[in-house]
Amino acid sequence: MGTRKGPYECGLDAAVDVIGGKWKVLLLWALAERPRRFGELKRELPKISEKVLSQQLRELEADRIVHREVYDQTPPKVEYSLTGLGTSLNEALAPLGAWGREHMTDLEATYPQRHPADS
């Protein structure tokens, strides 16, 4: 798993620990529509490496945000879906996404000053 902290200071601290990282909120968004297989998620997020995708899914599964269903068939089939906890987390993130859309232009304009190493 990732580097988990000890006891949390507040609810926001706990939530950010679960969704921390570049890809987890995007995975939550993708899984909100319907269950998906690993390859579907990889195609939906082409910039994520298979290693990181696998790691992020394992962490979300360990946090009980994502459910991994293995079907007993040949070839093997595995699907990922949101749990009830994952669905409620996605709903909680909706206002944050709305805030981001509302301020995206301003945030993009200031990105180089906030992230000089990426520019």
**Secondary-structure class:** mainly alpha
Shape: globular
Helix content: 55-70%
Describe the sheet with the most strands.
Answer: 3 strands, antiparallel
What's the CATH class label?
Answer: Mainly Alpha
| CATH superfamily (homologous) name | Winged helix-like DNA-binding domain superfamily/Winged helix DNA-binding domain
Total tally of structural domains? 1
- Beta strand count: 3
Tally of DSSP helical segments: 5
Distance between the termini: 30 Å
Give the amount of beta strand, in percent.
Answer: 5-15%
Radius of gyration: 16 Å
H/E series = HHEHHEEH
Overall mean pLDDT: 90
The CATH architecture would be Orthogonal Bundle
Poorly predicted regions are none
- Would you tell me which CATH topology applies? Arc Repressor Mutant, subunit A
Main β-sheet, spatial strand arrangement: 1-3-2
